[in-house]
Each structure stands twice: as C-alpha cells, then as structure tokens.
Amino acid sequence: MSAFSPLDRRMMARALQLAAKGLYSTRSNPRVGCVIARGERVLAEGYHQRPGEGHAEVRALQALPESESDLSTATAYVTLEPCSHYGKTGPCSEALIKAGIGRVVAAMVDPNPDVAGSGLARLQQAGVEVGSGLLESEARSLNPGFIQRMESGFPWVRLKMAASLDGRTALASGESQWITEAPARLDGHRWRARADAIVTGVETVLADNARLTPRADLPQGCSSASEPPLRVVLDSQLRTPADAALLGEAGRVLILHRDGADSPRLRALLDAGAECAAIESSEKGLDLPSVLRYLGAAGVNECHFECGARLAGSLLEEGLVDELLYYLAPVLIGSEAKPIAEFSLQALSEKKAFKVVEERRMGRDWRFLLQPQR
After folding, report:
1. Residue 244: is it exposed, middle or buried by C-beta count within 10 angstroms (0-12/13-18/19+)?
2. What is the rounded average pLDDT of the residues 344-351?
3. Which of 43, 103, 173, 199 could make an S-S bridge to 129, C-beta 3.0–4.6 Å?
4. Catalytic residue among 45, 57, 302, 306, which?
5. Considering only CA atoms, which of 183, 171, 158, 159 is closest in space to residue 331?
6. DSSP 8-state symbol, 79
7. Exposed e or buried b for every residue in 360-374, given b needs 16+ CB within 10 A?
8. What's the maximum distance between 2 C-alpha atoms anywhere in the chain?
9. What residues have CB less than 8 Å from 53, skipping those under 6 apart?
10. Is 57 a catalytic site residue?
11. Does the pTM of the predicted model rise above 0.70?
12. Whose CA is closest to 273, among 303, 250, 256, 307?
C-alpha cells in the first residue's frame, strides 16, 4: 500500500476518538473504533462497548445505510487489526470480507497471539487492500494494559499516590482526609473507573475500611461499564473482616492470600461473598509478580493500585510499576507524617527515575502522570 494520505490520518483520528468512548467499559477487551468511509464521506461508525457485544467493525457495518450495499470503493479505518478467530463473537475480518469492503487500514497489528497479523493476512488473501501502522502510537496509548497482557501475561500496573510537598501521605496518627482537594479526588475516581481491577493491601482495608469503588456521581461516560471494576485485596493472613465495607458493595471482591491461611476466616469471607485464591508467598508476604500473573490470567488489563507505603514501596522496589499517577498538594505536613513509599537504597545511583508523560493542574493541586525510565 502507498503512503497514507492526510485524509487517511483524519479518518483514523476519528476512529481513535470513537475507540476512546469505550475507555470505561470494555474491561478485559481492547478499546477499538472503526470508521467506514468513501473518500471524504463517512458512511458509518462504530466502537466496541462491552465484552461479549459486537466489535467496532461489526457495529460500523450494522450502522451502514441500506443504500450503501456496495463497499468495493470504501475503506474501513480500524484502530486495531480486525480479529480472525472465534470468541464470544465471530471474526471481524470475515465480516468485512462478506460485506465486500475494498480497503482496510489498521492503526496497529493485534498483539493477541490468536490474531497477530492473521486478520490482515486473511483480508489480503480475499483481495482486500490492507495497510497498518497509521497513528500506531496513539492507538497503543489507548490500550496499554491489553497490549502488555497479550505480550507478557502481566497487566499494566498504575500506582496512584497523593502527597504533600514534603512527600507525605498522612499524619503519624493515620489521619489523611484530605491532603488533596475535590478536583483531584474526582479525577482519581475517574482513573478508578477505567481500571479492570482496583488493588490494595489489607492494611488499607483495616485502617480506612476502604470501599475501593469509583464514585457514583462521576461525569456522564465515566461509569458506562456493565459492572464495577474488580476489587482486589492482598491479604496473606486473611485479616479482612467479613463485615468490611467493600464486601457490602456491588461487584466482585477478590482476596488473595497465602496457601494454608486460616480456614475459618476463609469460610467467613466466602460466606460474605468474597472470592479467594491462594498465591505464592514468602516470609515478606505475597509474591507480587505471582499476584500480577494471576490477575493477567484472569483477564485484567489495567491494574490500579491504591495502597499504603509498604506495598507501594515493594511495587517500586521490584520494578513492577508501569505508570505513576501522582497528585501533589501545595501543603506541608511535617517530618513525622507517613512517607509516600517505604523502600531503601544503598546508593543514589539506584534511585527510581521517572519521565513526566503529562502534567495537569487540578484546582489547587497538580497531577503528574509518570512512567519509569527503563
């Protein structure tokens, strides 16, 4: 295929806008958008909304006017390679072939080993003109968790922190509400809502009786999923109370514990509606890579950690953080307050370095989105 034209770029940019509409609802599936156009004229659009429902290409094909029965001169712009396998829905590549589409442009090849180029190959074999790589970096940024899970088995780990100017999260007494103000807290709930799983440690559950749910009054479009994110508690000794607030909320709660943990406690939590699973552990607690592999195998793409300093420090120390969501409040709360993370270095050369991906003002506070320099 020849180089992509400015028109191709505009159409793919629109497909990416459509894909972003599934930011809060696709859960284990990727966020995908599709535009079917003939030249400058858009014939139909679609995006994937929820697992088990029609993919973006199918939705776009279903939205075509009855008068558009000949698609031989039309192009389908798709933000992810059309699938070629049977899952909960049929292969999108076959649907496009059956519709008689003349050309397909994908932003990126699907990292799913079940697809990985076979969708585009199938289209090409059927005589469809194909191309890929248009606005690929933008497409990848929409699906960091899906891509990483397909390539490594690990979900994308986002660690959320909120701290004072002196890097503290709570007073020595444990008081922490509120370091940041309302705009930053609302933004944090938006990030909760887009995650597949919200993860914390049992210490946070015991100290705050945390519910780990996105706020119910989020702006329209931030809570369009059929069910809330999975809530996960890392609790090696099963100390989560059976009457904990998070067990009284709608949605699934998964408690990960070490093998051989107290049986009566396990039974009480199961009776309270929790799901429980044993994870490889050591004297220090649950093995965090094993935790992430377990969640990846369960279909978790984006893992949103909101936790105490010890667990945050372990994630950072082991190099498991893919993205740091950092809220900075313009206040000082003193040297005896609790640190943002607990880990130690032997030399300054071991420091954890991050690059700033985005910075944004949130009322009086600031939000930084950072990724490790690897």
Report:
1. buried
2. 78
3. 103
4. 57
5. 171
6. S
7. eebeebbbbbbeeee
8. 71
9. 89
10. yes
11. yes
12. 250
